[in-house]
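Reply to dn_fold:

You asked what the input looked like. This is it:
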Amino acid sequence: ASGLDVGTFSVRSGGATHNLQSFSTWCVAQCQANTADSRDLREIIYTPDGKVVRRWDRLGKRSSGDDSHLWHTHFSFFRDSTKAGRDQTPLFRRYLTSIGLLEDTDMTPEEHAWLESVHKNLTVLDGRNPVGQIYTRMAMGEDHTSPDFVVPHPTLKSLGTQLASVQTALTALANKDITDESAIVTGVLAGLTPERIAAAIPPTVARQVADELAKRLVA
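and this is what came back:
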């Protein structure tokens, strides 16, 4: 097996004190539960209280250790797992996350790689490097050196100008009274003969209209 020794420590986090003993017993509990991130561990030699030494042995061959393990914990990983290059940090990262010293991202290594790829490609396009700057200038319609050159295709600038113009026109239209009563009356009267106008006037107001017209003619 491949060995890893962890020395004495004490840290406050999440309103509690965490030390080598609490860390060691937590790791042993994960091994006993056969969690996925602990299966490469061959054994752990530790002390739960600083007084007695215990050994968790996946193969069940031994149960004790010497007194040096009162101040350090010994982890052994199956050598074929370390030779294969498998990541042995997830168990320890999960411990640090559980006591509040690390944020839990809930991401697998594959998801991390995918996110890095997406970030890299977005960076290429957003103008923070030469390739991205080219794409940005093309979108803005500025990928030329002559100030007299007119871009023949829509750009972010031209589209922005058009949208602003449309917005201005819509605002003006929304604030306009589109009902012109005078024009409507003029249009209606233009299509009527004197006979039809007279016929449309109720008898009760015919005398009043005649008097009003006579006054206007004299004036």
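The two ends are 122 Å apart (CA to CA).
Hope that clears it up.
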